[in-house]
């Protein structure tokens, strides 16, 4: 029984990974022609991931971390929560941050991703990355970690209503 299962598994893998060499080559060319449309906003062929001089925020990364910490509006939570957001964006050749995307947000549902987009959108222009002596567009990915403390709501005691005698 075990041997027949192994043979069946092998045959299904062999058939699954088999290729049809008789497929017309023009189909691949057609697909490539249809997918080379460039968006009006971003020319993704000209965005670098590896550069000679990295893009940097004004006054450096430590100042940028302080800016994020002071600008980030934390949500109200009932218990201590650790939040993480991975954000990918493009530093354009003029230093502006565009195409801001949330790669990962944990925990979901607190609005941390939207807040990270707001903070990055409002940040100052960066010094763009450089390649061969010219300013270029560069992908940049950052991790934002937050420790969110619970909000202590102070419950005010109900004041006792003094009973006053009714005057007739």
Give helix % range: 25-40%
Structural class: alpha+beta
Number of helices: 4
Number of strands: 5
State the order of secondary-structure elements, H for helix, E for strand. HHEHEEHEE
How much β-strand is present in the residues? 15-25%
Distance between the termini: 101 Å
Tertiary shape: elongated
**Radius of gyration from the alpha-carbon trace, in angstroms:** 28 Å
Largest sheet composition: 5 strands, mixed
* Poorly predicted segments: 1-40
| Average of per-residue pLDDT values | 75
Short key terms for the protein model shown above:
alpha+beta; five-stranded mixed beta sheet; 4 helices; 28% helix
Describe the model.
By secondary structure, this protein is of the alpha+beta class. 28% of the residues lie in helices and 24% in strands. It contains 4 helices and 5 strands, in the order ααβαββαββ. It has helices at residues 2-16, 26-35, 60-71, 112-121, and strands at 47-48, 81-91, 97-106, 129-131, 134-148. Strands 1, 2, 3, 4 and 5 form a 5-stranded mixed beta sheet that branches. The chain is elongated, with a radius of gyration of 28 Å. The chain starts with a helix and ends in a 20-residue tail after the last strand.
Q: How would the blueprint of this fold be written?
A:
Blueprint: H1 2-16, H2 26-35, E1 47-48, H3 60-71, E2 81-91, E3 97-106, H4 112-121, E4 129-131, E5 134-148
Parallel strand pairs: 1-5
Antiparallel strand pairs: 2-3, 2-5, 4-5
């Amino acid at each position: 029984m075990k041997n027949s299962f192994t043979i069946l598994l092998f045959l299904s893998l062999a058939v699954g990974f088999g290729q049809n060499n008789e497929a017309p080559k023009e189909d691949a060319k057609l697909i490539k022609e249809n997918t080379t449309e460039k968006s009006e906003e971003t020319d993704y062929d000209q965005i670098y991931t590896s550069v000679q001089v990295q893009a940097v925020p004004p006054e450096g990364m430590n100042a940028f971390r302080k800016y994020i910490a002071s600008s980030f509006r934390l949500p109200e939570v009932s218990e201590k929560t650790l939040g993480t957001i991975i954000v990918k964006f493009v530093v354009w050749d003029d230093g502006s941050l565009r195409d801001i995307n949330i790669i990962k947000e944990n925990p979901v549902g607190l609005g941390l991703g939207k807040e990270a987009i707001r903070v990055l959108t409002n940040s100052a222009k960066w010094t763009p990355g450089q390649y061969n002596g010219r300013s270029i567009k560069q992908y940049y990915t950052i991790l934002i970690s937050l420790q969110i403390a619970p909000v202590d709501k102070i419950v005010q005691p109900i004041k006792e209503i003094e009973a006053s005698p009714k005057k007739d």
